[in-house]
Specification:
This protein is α+β, with helices and mostly antiparallel strands and 137 residues long. It has 2 helices and 4 strands. The protein has 2 domains: 1-61; 64-134, no CATH class. A hairpin with a 2-residue loop joins strand 2 (80-84) and strand 3. The longest helix is centred in the first third of the chain and has 51 residues, at 11-61. The mean pLDDT is 89.
Length: 137
């Protein structure tokens, strides 16, 4: 509230204006607190949902599954040692064995990587053979 040149401001008018400003400020502050607490609740809910998801995934990875590894009398005759993050197990070949799913998945991933490596080696052998023929070696 600004006074014009000829207008005088009374103490009571200033007090009422200050009180109105303080009330508006407190209302805005309360609104911001409510917004913040709502955002914190939403974040907390997301955090709890993520923690539940992680617990469910951990439980699924730790379920037992049965597998049997190929066995012959040459290259594939020894037991297989598998380790993940400090947890390990030894799997006998040629016998149905119950292991945690995470170890079975690691074995699957290892087999897939072996197949990809074999494909790459074959591709490179073919490329080398083609280059050799081209250069008459």
């Amino acid at each position: 509230m600004q006074a014009k040149e000829n207008e005088t401001v009374t103490l009571e008018a200033l007090r009422s204006e200050i009180e109105a400003l303080r009330t508006a400020y407190e209302a805005e502050l309360a609104s911001l607190r409510d917004d913040k607490s709502a955002a914190e609740r939403a974040l907390s809910e997301k955090h709890e949902k993520f923690k539940r998801f992680l617990r469910d995934q951990e439980a699924w990875l730790n379920e037992y599954v049965e597998i049997r590894l190929f066995k012959d009398n040459e290259k594939y005759k020894d037991d297989v040692y598998v380790a993940i993050n400090g947890k390990n197990c030894v799997i006998r070949r040629g016998v149905w064995t119950r292991i945690r799913r995470k170890f079975a998945m690691l074995l699957d991933q290892s087999e897939i990587q072996d197949l990809r490596t074999a494909e790459l080696m074959e591709r490179e052998e073919n490329r080398f053979a083609d280059e050799s023929r081209r250069h008459e070696m």
